[in-house]
Specification:
The protein has 338 residues and is mostly helical. It has a single domain, classed as ABC transporter involved in vitamin B12 uptake, BtuC (Orthogonal Bundle). It has 14 helices and 2 strands, in the order αααααααββααααααα. The chain has helices at residues 2-6, 9-31, 38-63, 71-88, 94-118, 123-142, 154-158, 174-192, 194-204, 206-211, 216-242, 253-263, 275-294, 303-337; strands at 163-167, 170-173. A two-stranded antiparallel ribbon has the order 1-2. A hairpin with a 2-residue loop joins strand 1 and strand 2 (170-173). The relative contact order is 0.19.
């Protein structure tokens, strides 16, 4: 118990998440033949490469006591717009294409940010509306057409699965490695750079943050802009991985991104959490989905129910855990004072 009070809440959440990941792996290894192998790692890492980016952006928004339900639509629009551009200009520089995807996503995020931060409309209302509006814009923009992998250059479709290095049968591919680098950069910024720490300050206590000279409106706007940026990069990754893009691209990513962040220990009420936790949460969510597909005991109709139950369990556990830890530390402080 004394060890628990010495560790930070963030460290405890990460340890608990790693323990849950280990338990899930152990359980399904007893239920599915040939479960633990390099192919499982390769399959999960390829999928997580996309969701890790979205969950990172979602985490920044949640830290400020808000939520972004439009990320799936932004991913879909960014993927289609980027695919359309490279299809019409196959010799385009890869860096320009990446910057274009990022710019499209950032533009959508800035629109959300203006309405939430400066018009002061609740984020759940704004992003619920923009989720539908951005998806409708994609339908109009696509003109009922699809992007196919045949129209894309080989370098783009080969990028996600290009091996960077291997550990036995486990391949660390370019898509997963690039996403991990982005997550680590954001984690470094949130833990080491003073401007990035403002996300925590605004989420913890907006009034106190304002009194300390922090522009809460600008911070919230930046969170949504960065969420859009991450969704745009995820759209690029989605295009590279799947090649075939339709108007339903990215559908359902909203729930998965929130689940990844919350399961990863990001407080849904803002002010605490980490992108490393969200990254591990994305791995856990994807691992469960992949495992449930291969586990014949559970019907496919129950997979969404399992994901919803996981969100509810994570929020409940985090709330109870935080209260318990606060009580332990308060008791220890009183004992030390005596």
């Amino acid at each position: 118990m004394a060890l628990l009070t010495r560790l930070s809440p963030a460290a405890l959440r990460l340890l608990a998440l790693l323990a849950v990941l280990a338990l899930v792996l152990i359980f399904f290894s007893t239920q599915i033949e040939g479960y633990l192998n390099g192919r499982l790692f390769n399959r999960i890492s390829s999928s997580v490469a996309i969701m890790a980016l979205i969950a990172t952006g979602q985490t920044l928004v949640i830290l400020t006591r808000n939520i972004d339900l439009s990320v799936g639509s932004v991913v879909g629009f960014s993927a289609f717009a980027t695919g359309s551009l490279i299809s019409n200009h196959p010799d385009l520089n890869p860096l320009i294409l990446l910057l274009y995807a990022a710019a499209v996503g950032t533009g959508f995020g800035m629109l959300n940010g203006v309405l939430v931060a400066y018009a002061r409309i609740p984020s759940i209302i704004v992003t619920l509306a923009s989720m539908a509006l951005f998806r409708s814009a994609l339908v109009e923009y696509s003109n009922a057409k699809s992007i196919t992998s045949e129209s894309l250059p080989a370098w783009l479709t080969d990028f996600p699965n290009m091996p960077v290095f291997s550990l036995g049968a486990m391949e660390f591919r370019a898509g997963f490695t690039a996403s991990l680098v982005v997550v680590l950069i954001v984690h470094f910024a949130l833990t080491r750079l003073r401007p990035a720490r403002q996300f925590f300050a605004v989420g913890s206590n907006p009034e106190a943050a304002e009194m300390a000279g922090i522009d809460a409106h600008r911070t919230i706007f930046a969170a949504f802009a960065l969420s859009g940026l991450m969704a745009g990069l995820a759209g690029f990754m989605f295009l590279a991985r799947f090649g075939n893009i339709t108007v339903v691209a990215g559908l359902g990513f909203e729930l998965k991104s929130v689940a990844s962040s919350v399961v990863g220990g990001v407080n849904i009420f803002g002010g605490s959490g980490s992108v490393i936790g969200a990254f591990l949460g994305a791995i856990l969510v994807d691992l469960l989905e992949t495992s449930l597909v291969r586990w014949a005991v559970v019907s496919e109709f129950w997979r969404e129910a399992v994901l919803g139950a996981l969100i509810l369990l994570a929020v409940t556990t985090d709330t109870l855990f935080s209260r318990r830890l606060a009580a332990l530390r308060a008791r220890k402080s009183k004992e030390s004072a005596k």
